[in-house]
Structure formats: C-alpha cells, structure tokens
Amino acid sequence: MNTNSPQAGRTSHRKLVRKLVLLAVGMFGFGFAMWPLYNVFCDLTGLGGRGVKVAESAGDVQKSDRHVKIRFDATVNSGLPWVFEAKDKSSWVTLGEMTEAWYLAMNPADQAIAGHAIYNVTPPEASLYFVKTECFCFTEQVLQANETKEMPVYYFIQPDLPEHIKEITLSYTFYRDENSTAVAQAAGSDSSPE
Amino acid sequence: MSIETTHSHDESHDDHHDHAPSGFLDRWLFTTNHKDIGTLYLVFSLLMFFIGGSMAMIIRAELFMPGLQLVEPDFFNQMTTMHALIMVFGAVMPAWVGFANWMIPMMIGAPDMALPRMNNWSFWILPFAFTMLLSTLFMDSGGPAAGWTLYPPLSLQGGQSFAFVVFAVHMMGISSIMGSINVIATILNMRAPGMTLLKMPLFVWTWLITAFLLIAVMPVLAGAVTMLLTDHFFGTSFFNAAGGGDPVMFQHIFWFFGHPEVYIMILPAFGVVSEIIPTFARKPLFGYTAMVYATASIAFLSFIVWAHHMFTVGMPLTGELFFMYATMLIAVPTGVKVFNWVSTMWRGSMTFETPMLFAIGFVVLFTIGGLSGLMLAIAAVDLQYHDTYFVVAHFHYVLVPGAVFALMAGTYYWLPKWTGHMYSEKWGKIHFWVSTISVNILFFPQHYLGLAGMPRRIPDYSTQFADFNMISSIGGFIFGASQLIFVGVIVHCVYKSRKAATAQVWEGARGLEWTLSSPPPYHSFNTPPPINASTVAHADEAH
C-alpha cells in the first residue's frame, strides 16, 4: 500500500499536515456555524418553542370551530426585581380568531428599570401555528419607579393546528436590559405605551 | 541477558548517535526524541492523576457522612469540576499520547514521529495550560465550579478567573490537535515498507482513529468555550437567552465534542487490551479485521449520539427516539470487541502476569460500565437516572477500571521494554488486586445511590444515602492509597530493579517493538525493519 520510506517523508508530511490543519480550522468554524444553523433548524422545526410567526393582522385566516386551551405563564429572571404575571392563567380560544391576552408587570424599585421579555411555546410543535400581531416582547419595556403596567399580546392560532394538540402554553421570561438607552438617557423620559 | 535480534547489527553503525543528550535541559526541555517525549507525557499524566485523585479524595471525604464537615459547598463544586477537567484533559488524554509517542514509531518500524519539533511543542504547552487551570483555585473568584461541562448560564456566573479556564482549555486543545496531526502523519507516512494498514498492530489502528476524532472535535470545544468567553466578557449572547441566544445550544455543541471525547479516552484502551490479551493467551487476536471495523464504526457512531446526554432538555419525541436507537447501536461494535477478546482467550494457554490481570479486569469491569450505559440510553428511564449517581457510577466504570486500568495494563506490559528491567511481579499483582477490589467498593454502591435518587455534584445528602456513601468513600480511600503502590513499582523498576528484561520480555509477545533490545536504542529503526510473518503483531488473522 502507500508506504513511503522515512527519507521520502518531508514533502508528503507537509501536504498531509496542511489538510489536517485545514480540517481543524474548519471544525473550529463549524462550532460557530452551529449558531446560525441551530436558529434556522429551530425556526423550521419549532424546536425550542420559538417558531412563532409575526403578522400585520389576521387577514383572511379561516376561522374554525375548534377550540384549544391556552395557558399563560410568566417568569422573572433573578437579575430583575420586577413582579410579573399573567392577568388570566388560561383561556379557551377559537382557532383562527384574533385574541388578546394581558400581562401585568410592576417595578417595586425606586428607579426606572428596563426589561426585555423572551417567550417560548410548549409543545414546541405548536409554535409553528402560533401567530402574533402585537406583543410587549417585541420591544424593550421600561418601568418607572413603582410603576405598574398592563401589557397586551394579540395573537391567533392557525386553524391547521395538528389535531393532537389540545393545550398550548405561552411562557414569558423577563430579563433585565442592562444596556437600555431609554433608562440611561434620563430617568422619567419614557412615555407610557399603547 | 543477551539482546540478539535480527537487526541489532543495523543499529551498530549508528552507535555514536545512540546516546541521549547529556544536559538535563537538552535531554528534556529541547528533546525531539519520541521516547523522551513519551516519557514526559507519561510522567506528566501520572502527576495529574495524583492531583486529580487528591481532589477526588476531598470529594469522597466530604461525602463520607451526610452534612457539611470539611469544605464549603462552593469549594466542593470547584473540586468536582477540577477533578473532571484534570482527569480527562490532564491524566487520561496525555497518558494515551505518551503511549502513542513511545509505541507507534516502534510498532510500525519508523525512526521517530513524523514531526519531532512539533511533538516537543505539543507536550510543553501542557504544563503551562494546567498551571493556568490550577492557578484559578488560588484566585479571588476561585476555580470553575459549574461542572466540567461548563453549562451556561451557571458557568457564566463565575468570576474573572473564568478567562483562565477558557485559555487553559484552548491550550489543551491546541496540544491535542498537534499531537493528533503528528500521530496521523506518522502512521500514514512513516510505516516501514511492507507494513500495510491491515498489518498494523491494533493499538496503532485505534490511535489513528482516535487522532481523527480529536482533530474533528477539539476545535468544536474550542469554539464553544470561546463563545462562553465572549458571552462572559464581551457582551455577546450566544447562550444568553436575554439577548436572543439559547443555553441549550451550548449543550448541543458541548456534547457534539463530548461524546466523541469519551471514545477518544477509550479507543486507545481497546487497542492496548487487544495487544495484551493475545500475548498472554498465546493465541493470535481473534477477528483482527472485525476489530478494526468495529473501532471505525464506534468512531462514526460517536458523532450522531450526542443528545443522549440531554434527554431532559425537552427534545421532540422523534429526537429522543433517534438518539436512543443510535446510542444502543453502539453496543453492537462494542459487543464485537468484547466477544473477540473473550474468543482470543478461549482455549488459549493463559498466564496471569500483571498486564494480563489488568486487561481481564478491564474486559469485565468495562463491560459493566457499558451495560449501565445501555440502561442510560433508554430515554424513558434516563429521565429518572439523569444527573444522579447512577451516571457517576456508569462513567467511572468505563473510565477508571476502563481507560485507567488499560493505561496500567499497558504500563506493566511495556515497562520492561522501556526501562530494560523487570518490575516486581509480586507488587504488580498486589496493586492489581487492591485496585480491583477497592474500585468496585468505590463505584458499585453508587449505582444504588443513583437509582435511589441521589443527585450528583451536591456536597450534602439525605440520610438514607449515608451507608452506601460511607462504603463508597472507604473504597475510594483504599483505591487512592493503592495507587501509591503503582508509583512504587514504577520507581523501583526504573531505578532499583536488578532483573534485566530480554528483548522479547513476554513469551507470547509479537510485533516489531519486541525485536528491539530492552531498553530500545535511543534511535531505533533508522533502517526500516523487514516486515514478515514473524514481525507482524496480528499476522495470522490479517489474511
């Protein structure tokens, strides 16, 4: 087979080493490529429950007479001193019908704090049929000292939701936004939403 | 003893080159000799084995009784994390590179490794990497404490010393990649004429495959820790949910590295055991080609099973099923290996010198670890076993009486070849029996603890776990102490042993390394040796 004598070594080493180094560099890049690939994969499959679509309006989506139960979950990251909860714990919605849900956030601190909400949907597969037209999670939220704010989500569930899904949980986690320009500029320069 | 070999006269004209450099720095710091570098790797990994082992002793001492007696919980977490990092990257991996350095050129009839200067560099990076890693224990924010898997967000909540951990991992990675490039270049380009791929000893085969695994996955780990570094210090959000990242993605990237990594630690062990068992069974290895293909299959499968470490993250059912079945598939090539070792011993004229004892201990105890791995592979029950002591028992069975026993078997097997002296067989056997009994006292009760629900990486536990933990700790202390016998046997063999080793050393040993004198000349095989049925390790089964 391909046996070289030791004397023939140098040049063939160089070629082989070049290929192996290239492989190592390529795999280093592959590690980073996982980031966009993972996001694309999650968007396509709904993995992680983040496949929610954003639309301008419900448009001409066909209403169906099927109902599913939507549960609302609210969590605050330990870095943010807010109180945050869903106004209703759950509600029944008609597929294809535009629906609204309200969340409440309260800032007990004596200074303005900005936060950002991250959502996910369980079961993850359901996120592919979940369409939001407006959500407080789309933008940064600033709460003045001791302010309480009601925040809406407008959404509908596409009527082609698979039959076996009877219940969907929409979950939000609020994180502190350390780099908020709104809070940094001046306390109290923020206007209330809606 | 006389060291008449067929080509000792080939070496004689080289005698004036045949002396190692005399100065200490020239000999060890600037060396490009594969045997010296192999020795450096082995000594370094033995040192790391004891440093990592002392951390294990602290862990077992704290877990001796329920409640907190000895250490603070945060320090306990640092110990579990550092113990794992040091044992994986500092003890087992460099030890295998040490074996590769010593044995591969001698086994394929090459004069040295392909890239001797890079070889020197890849070793001398390691002491710096581990000094950096260990120095974090003395820093204000302490060592890494989030587990060796470094999962965010926990790992990102550590202090400034985290940067040292990341750079230490980078350096270990660079060292491993350079070492692997060297191994591949040596094996593919430097074999003596006639040493075809399917005539290579199995240890060389397993290392060739291991080296490809290393080059494929160490850079992925480097990428993952780099992302942690920028998340921690430079405000990126790869794994930070608040910024749109996903901590679960880290687990995917980490285990894409992590699963091949466990085979990186065990494949060379398969190789060593496949060399030792035929020697002491005095029969050719059963199913040589099947062994080669089984090794390659295991390596391939290792890339598509990573998420079995993450069954509890909330994967879709199809994902759980895929990773469950793919994982179970690994039992097939592994079973091929175990049955081949057993078949090699079947009706052989077996003798039980220390290397053989360790090799048989490996086959039995590694199989226990493999079977508990199959239990963990069942996604439905893994939800119960996940992150319990059952997992700890499983991977310690495959790593300690698995990889580490194979390292010891290999050490006893080749130590007479390396040093030219026989080690003390009596003390070798004592070392084997004390280690084997104590390692089972140490890890077997942990299966029960895990099944009963004791979580891993916690310094305190509920009182119903008390008895098994005490038994486990006692086993741990005996196992730890018995490794001092190992050091004693090695030191005695190197400096004190009066009993010279023959070139052949073991009656049934076959392969090129046994055609060299014991110890082998500083430069061996400057002229490629003849390859024929009498110098090929597994000739009878290769065709």
Give me the secondary-structure topology:
The complex is a heterodimer of chains A (about 190) and B (about 550).
Chain A: H1 9-45, E1 53-54, E2 67-76, E3 83-86, E4 90-94, E5 99-106, E6 113-122, E7 130-135, E8 141-143, E9 148-157, E10 167-176, H2 181-185
Parallel strand pairs in A: 1-7, 2-10
Antiparallel strand pairs in A: 2-4, 3-5, 5-9, 6-8, 6-10, 7-9
Chain B: H1 8-12, H2 24-29, H3 34-62, H4 73-108, H5 116-135, H6 162-189, H7 202-233, H8 247-281, H9 288-301, H10 317-329, H11 331-345, H12 354-377, H13 379-385, H14 389-419, H15 425-451, H16 466-496, H17 539-542
Helix pairs in contact in B: 3-4, 3-5, 3-16, 4-5, 4-6, 4-8, 4-14, 5-6, 6-7, 7-8, 7-9, 8-11, 8-12, 8-14, 9-11, 11-12, 12-14, 12-15, 14-15, 14-16, 15-16
Fold and architecture overview:
The complex is a heterodimer of chains A (194) and B (543). By secondary structure, chain A is of the alpha+beta class. Chain A has 2 domains: 7-45; 52-185, Ctag/Cox11 (Pfam 04442). Helices cover 22% and strands 35% of the residues of chain A. Chain A contains 2 helices and 10 strands, in the order αββββββββββα. In chain A, the strands form 2 sheets. Chain A has a 5-stranded mixed sheet with strand order 1-7-9-5-3, with no helix packed on it. A 5-stranded mixed sheet of chain A has the order 4-2-10-6-8, with no helix packed on it. The longest helix of chain A is centred in the first third of the chain and has 37 residues, at 9-45. The N and C termini of chain A lie far apart (76 Å). The model of chain A is unreliable at 1-7 and 187-194 (pLDDT under 50). Chain B is an all-alpha fold and 543 residues long. Helices cover 66% and strands 0% of the residues of chain B. Chain B has 17 helices and no strands. In chain B, helix 4 runs antiparallel to helix 5, helix 11 packs antiparallel against helix 12 and helix 15 (425-451) packs antiparallel against helix 16 (466-496). Mean pLDDT of chain B is 93; it is low at 1-16. Chain A binds chain B through residues 1-6, 9, 12-13, 16-17, 20-21, 23-32, 34-35, 38, 42, 45, 47-48, 77, 116, 118, 122, 124-125, 173, 175-177, 179, and chain B through 110-111, 114-115, 177, 180-181, 184-185, 188-197, 215-224, 226-227, 235, 238, 241-242, 244, 246, 248-249, 252-253, 256, 314-316, 319, 528.
